[in-house]
Amino acid sequence: MKKDFSVKTIVAIGIGSAVFVILGRFVVIPTGFPNTNLETAYPFLALISVIFGPVAGGLIGLIGHTLKDFTTYGSAWWSWIICSGIIGVVYGLAGRKIDLIHGEFNKKDIIYFNIYQVIGNAVVWGLIAPTLDVLIYSEPASKVYTQGVIAVVLNIIAVGIIGTLLMAAYAATRTKKGSLTKD
C-alpha cells in the first residue's frame, strides 16, 4: 500500500494527535503504579500508523503525547514522548505489509502485526523508555524499569486486543481489492 505524505495524511496527523490526547487523558485505566496506566491511545495509534504509515504514526505519537503531557501535568516527560513517536513508527512499519485500505486483514496479518507489536513494545517501553529516564532525568533504575515492564505488558495487551479489533473493524468497512465496487 502506498503511503505518501498527502494533505489527507497531514490532516490525519492533526486529528490523530488530538484523538491521542483525548484518549490519553480521559480513557485510561490506572494500574496503581505511579504514572503507568493501561492506555487506549496506543491501540488507536496502531490503527492510524498502519493506515497512514510510519512517518504519520511517529508524528502522531510525538505530538499527541507532548500535548497530553502538557495538558495533564503542565510539563513534558520527553523520554516517554520520544518513545511514543518511536512506537508509532514501529506500528507504521508493521503496517507496510498489511493492506487495511483494501479490506485485507486476515489471520496471517493479525499474527504478523501482533508479533511485530510485541517485539516493538518490549524494546521501546522495556528498554528505551526506562534507559532514557535514567539518562535524562536521573530516575532510579529500579522504578523506571518496573514502569517499563508494566507498560510493555499493558501495551501488548491493549494493542493486541483493542488494536486488532480496531483494524479488523476498519478493514471490514473497506472495499476489498478486486471487487467490482469502486474505491
Question: What do these coordinates show?
Answer:
There is one protein chain. The protein is mainly alpha-helical and 183 residues long. The chain has a single domain (7-173), classed as Arp2/3 complex 21 kDa subunit ARPC3, CATH 1.10.1760. The protein is 73% helix and 3% strand. The chain has helices at 7-26, 41-52, 54-73, 78-95, 107-137, 141-173, and strands spanning 28-30, 37-39. Strands 1-2 form a two-stranded antiparallel ribbon. A hairpin with a 6-residue loop joins strand 1 and strand 2 (37-39). Helix 3 runs antiparallel to helix 4 and helix 5 runs antiparallel to helix 6. The longest helix is centred in the last third of the chain and has 33 residues, at 141-173. It is globular and about 60 Å long. The chain starts with 6 loop residues before the first helix and ends in a 10-residue tail after the last helix.
Task: Give the arrangement of secondary structure elements.
Layout: H1 7-26, E1 28-30, E2 37-39, H2 41-52, H3 54-73, H4 78-95, H5 107-137, H6 141-173
Helix pairs in contact: 1-2, 1-3, 2-3, 2-4, 2-6, 3-4, 4-5, 5-6
